[in-house]
Write a structure and sequence with these properties.
Elements: E1 4-7, E2 10-13, E3 18-24, E4 33-39, E5 46-51, E6 58-60, E7 68-73, E8 78-83, E9 92-99, E10 116-117, E11 121-126
Parallel strand pairs: 2-11
Antiparallel strand pairs: 1-3, 3-8, 4-5, 4-9, 5-6, 7-8, 9-10, 9-11
Length: 127
């Protein structure tokens, strides 16, 4: 069982920045592929960014490319999402997710490919 705890959400003005963190339990963090997803009211959960087990491969959705950066620190069992130039349409609950026990060093974009989820952190961007 993997437990995930997100932090760093909050209220920010358009154009501002936030950094989300996702701390994961377990001794095999380096075998986890990980991702960030978000869900706005009335919308489906969508992929924001993903990172491979080593951190050597990353993916960002087109809507956030150039503004958001995903990273991880395997020594700290933590993944990050640096969000810059935030827009009101970025307002959502942000979730981190883990696909455990992967052997390939690749990213996974679909929410159906993940095994464990955090409780979410609210990000609100005011105009």
């Amino acid at each position: 069982q993997v437990q995930l705890v997100e932090s760093g959400g909050g209220l920010v003005q358009a154009g501002g920045s936030l950094r989300l963190s996702c701390a994961a339990s377990g001794r095999t963090f380096s075998s986890y592929a990980m991702g960030w997803f978000r869900q706005a009211p009335g919308k489906e959960r969508e992929s924001v960014a993903a990172i491979s087990r080593s951190g050597g491969s990353t993916y960002c959705a087109g809507s956030v490319k150039g503004r958001f950066t995903i990273s991880r620190d395997n020594a700290k069992n933590t993944m990050y999402l640096q969000m810059n130039i935030l827009k009101p349409e970025d307002t959502a609950i942000y979730y981190c997710a883990v696909r455990a026990g992967v052997s390939a060093d690749r990213t996974y974009a679909s929410r159906y490919e993940y095994d464990y989820w955090g409780q979410g952190t609210q990000v609100t961007v005011s105009s």
